[in-house]
């Protein structure tokens, strides 16, 4: 075993004063656990502490994530007894499981604190948080699982194993967030800080960022595009390959061996290309066989980019001959890739001239074959991911432009991610800052892994932001106002979640293994590009520019696609109705305890007492059409309570006082029409 070899070589070094270094695939090893995870957890805790302002609250998502991670890694470790699972796969599963585990718990805890600002029963608050944010977490988790399992479409076994292991890690992160976290909240609910004071939210929705986005939407779009396109430029010269020992840390035995071989023998000795020649048809003519083999030897030796060719060696049964081709440069050099193609082209010449069948192998050959297969698979894989994202978001938001903007934004952030990673890992930009000693080609399977994982994370942020904007727009019909509300309410948690993701992924950049380093780099900056540039800048700015068109869906399509409520809005409406019914128990009329509604032209408009007996209620005057719909809908108590929401939202938005009257309320009219349509549909279903 590798450990036995190391032990014997150590004995040689200690007792015989010789230098021994090891290289080759047998030396590849990635240790799971260590400083990377610890650094990521510490930074995540600091972000959570700033977000929640409480040590207990900051610790709950981390505890939930760690328990889920331990469960997932435990299952994966058990599977190693039945399947060959590389250590790099386990490290990737740890990286993803820790990041999404903290983020998912953050979303649920954040929603719990929002609910508890108006709720007194913490049990009900936990239920509402799980019913709303928990649904979004399930959606996000399922999306990530589908995406990473999609790696099996590529047709490379170890990528499929990576995907399935990551999926297990994500599944347990979701389970922990939905089961363990609520239990932890119930235990420590008294220690979780909740601001019970009701801020005048309607008056302070403007933040510097939301004002910039809505006031300078075109500039925001242009700025976002400039950042993403500039970062994506290096993709044009991205080279894919499998890292060789030349990019290992300088103090590693693999790097030392690579450098000694390159210096004393030639760099090409690190990328030897064995050529196997099938000579079965000529083994009965030994003299002719030797002449033809010498001709093959000369043909290969004369080829460009060849340094040395070993003489043909016959197998014991004389069925095969073996030559080793030593290229002039290392396994990932462009010239070596050209040589591999030349040797493959020679297969036909050898068969036509000598009747030999030739095959080649080696790391350079594997690099080319894997890169070719991945390049062929990436378009299909990316298309499946993009189409899946489009239809999922179209169903969720019932819109054409919302999913279109989302998937285009994802493509831009993906290209920017791969471009920036190429700039650092291949071109060496700021390599010292990231602990990179030697540059080389990009990890061949990095693009597909990045597509799969970032897709799930991007859709998570998209849903969290746009669902809040959509919810507010459905109430007010005010596009700018809805964008500001979405950025104010969802922006902070998206920023916190993205910073946590970044800290966890970026901590792995400083691991020695170049595969883990590359994946950490791509995922860390992928989250930054997608969360901050796309979701927090491009998407809201484009929503502002497209206005009401953002929410357009053809009527025929609206009828046939299913309705999905991943944010639990129906549950929140139920909560609203329940609380309103409770508040109205002591009143004879649900509406008139808070609003007095009059038809247009009424002369007896007056104020009245609210549920607390105070003379400060509000009078609203409706046009004839709106009044007729209002009277019809009011006959149904549940629907009328939803209309009650619309009246309150309108009053809050416009800060109405007790003596103001509003005529021809366009958006209220639309809300009533929507409610009336729902009522008619319900009546038809009952009949």
From TrEMBL:
Residues 658-685 form a coiled coil. Its main location: membrane. The chain crosses the membrane at residues 38-58, 65-83, 89-110, 122-153, 159-188, 209-233, 377-397, 404-424, 444-465, 491-510, 516-538. Signal peptide: none annotated. The keyword Membrane applies. It holds the Pfam family MMPL. Residues 62-187 form the SSD domain. Keywords: Cell membrane, Coiled coil, Membrane, Transmembrane, Transmembrane helix. It is found in: Cell membrane. One of its GO terms (cellular component) is plasma membrane. It is a multi-pass membrane protein. This is Putative transporter.
